[in-house]
Specification:
The protein is an alpha+beta fold. It is 62% helix and 12% strand.
């Protein structure tokens, strides 16, 4: 209801105390409300289609599928060679010093140097004489001369050069690795689980949109009922006012009629607010802008014809398509694969390796004169697990316990779902009976109100009798709408549990 209708109701309440209020005036002020053509009219199918493309939960679920697919592709990369390039530079601060012969040989230390004493001693003696004669020691590794003292190396020979450069490339590829193969299989199952979770998100969104849509219809039904009560109160006030002026009714009856109109106005305002709030909720679950001007098409009575048919279509109920049970089954399969993965840790693995590098050692930075020395190899690496302190054993036991916990969880979840199914079926059947009773009550209450209205106009009944019949009619109409609403809400919850309310074409 827009501002024109709100203002009309306020004016109606004010005019009751000052001027006659006729039905013709009410029709002119209230029923001739301009239609807002800017509204977007939606059916239930339209609302579902928009929600399945705009709802945030659905978008997040789709992103989760995409993430899992990328993770699976990343796991396949482990089967290919892993190639890396490397480079390093090293600046020597203090060179190593090599000693040959000396005190260690006399004491029997010897070592590797004693093996070459006979060969190296003549060379070493010649070098030392040359060094003592010129005062310039010779660096055997670089061929350069540098000023030093005899005490700087205590008779030793400096080994190495100041600058060391290294560049290379290496590659490794697994040939036999049971754990790697099993982890890739588990990653594939993770994608399937993400797809099922996305389906669960869609099922939940569909259920939420349906219930929000039905709530709008219920709020509009209540608004129509209270508006009809208000119209009847205005019409009765008009009749009472004429009779009061003709001195055919008491001032008490006239005052009661005026009070009935005043009491009907807040109910209309409240019903209007409920419609606005229900539309906001619908827009929220649809994922559209809350400022978007929308309205729904249809009424709850459109679903009353399906109540008897739907209750019998659910006789054969299974949990085969229930998303929770399917997710638990996928998780159980993942845990079974995880147990195998942990057991594969006892098996050996074989990998292939290759490396190629270039090395240069110099005392200057004349890169064009560097002499690069290549080094390369290719080989197989076999790893055989022997002892890990019980880690592999306990990893297997941990996975087994997790699988047992999941089996218990599946059993309990299945029981809870079966209880929920019976609850929803009972609720549907109860509301179906309530609808039958309410429909009959509406028919009788409408007939009673018509009789009371005619009797009141003829002066054969009181306004109290008319108010009682109006109250009975209002309650029966609201009960009828509530029964339909409860039925369709229970039905949507049941469809979500059964998992048969998701259409793949809506993805």
């Amino acid at each position: 209801m827009n501002k024109s209708l709100r203002n009309s109701l306020i004016c109606a309440a004010l005019l009751l105390a000052a001027a006659p209020f006729s039905r013709a005036q009410y029709i002119q002020d209230v029923t001739e409300v301009p239609v807002d053509t800017s509204k977007v009219l939606l059916t239930l199918e339209d609302a579902l289609r928009i929600a399945l493309s705009e709802n945030v939960s659905v978008k997040v679920a789709d992103k989760e599928i995409e993430r899992s697919e990328y993770a699976l592709k990343g796991s396949y990369s482990s089967l290919f060679p892993q190639i890396n390039a490397s480079g390093s530079y090293q600046r020597t601060i203090k060179k190593q010093v090599m000693y040959m012969g000396g005190d260690d040989d006399e004491e029997g230390g010897g070592g590797m140097a004693s093996m070459f004493t006979g060969i190296m001693e003549p060379i070493y003696a010649a070098l030392m004489q040359l060094s003592q004669g010129t005062g310039i020691p010779i660096d055997l590794t670089s061929g350069t001369q540098q000023q030093t003292t005899q005490s700087s190396n205590d008779g030793g020979i400096e080994v190495g050069r100041w600058n060391t450069f290294n560049a290379g490339i290496n590659a490794n590829m697994p040939l036999v690795n049971f754990q790697l193969w099993k982890s890739i299989a588990i990653s594939g199952e993770a994608v399937d689980l993400a797809v099922e979770k996305a389906r669960s998100s869609r099922l939940e969104t569909v259920s939420q949109v349906k219930q929000a849509f039905y709530a709008v219809l219920l709020a509009k039904e209540a608004f129509d009922v209270y508006k009809n009560v208000y119209e009847n109160a205005v019409d009765n006030f008009g009749q009472t006012e004429k009779r009061y002026k003709a001195q055919k009714t008491s001032e008490l009856e006239y005052t009661r009629a005026k009070v009935n109109v005043a009491n009907a106005i807040p109910n209309v305002y409240t019903a209007e607010s409920q419609v606005i709030l229900a539309l906001w909720q619908l827009k929220a679950v649809m994922g559209v802008d809350l400022d978007m001007n929308i309205d729904v098409i249809g009424s709850l009575n459109d679903y009353s014809s399906q109540m008897f048919r739907d209750i019998h279509e659910n006789d054969d109920i299974t949990l085969d398509n229930n998303t929770t049970m399917r997710q638990l089954a996928m998780q159980a399969e993942q845990l079974a694969q995880t147990i195998k993965l942990q057991k594969y840790a006892y098996l050996p693995s074989l990998s292939l390796g290759f490396a190629y590098s270039l090395n240069a050692m110099t005392n200057d930075f004349k890169f064009s004169e560097y002499k690069w020395t290549p080094y390369s190899y290719v080989g197989l690496s076999l790893s055989i697990p022997i002892f890990s302190g019980g880690k592999r054993y306990h990893d297997v036991k941990t996975a087994v316990v997790q699988a047992e916990e999941l089996d218990l969880q599946k059993l309990n979840t299945e029981r809870q779902l079966k209880i929920a199914i019976r609850q929803y079926l009972t609720n549907m059947e109860s509301n179906m009976k309530s609808y039958d009773s309410a429909s009959e009550a509406v028919s009788l209450a409408q007939k009673a109100y018509d009789i009371s209205s005619k009797s009141y106009n003829l002066g054969k009944s009181t306004l109290t009798d008319l108010n009682d019949s109006q109250l009975a009619l209002t309650q029966s109409r609201l009960a009828q709408s509530q029964a339909i609403y409860n039925f369709v809400v229970a039905k949507s919850n049941l469809e979500q549990i059964l998992g048969n309310d998701f259409i793949e074409d809506n993805r």
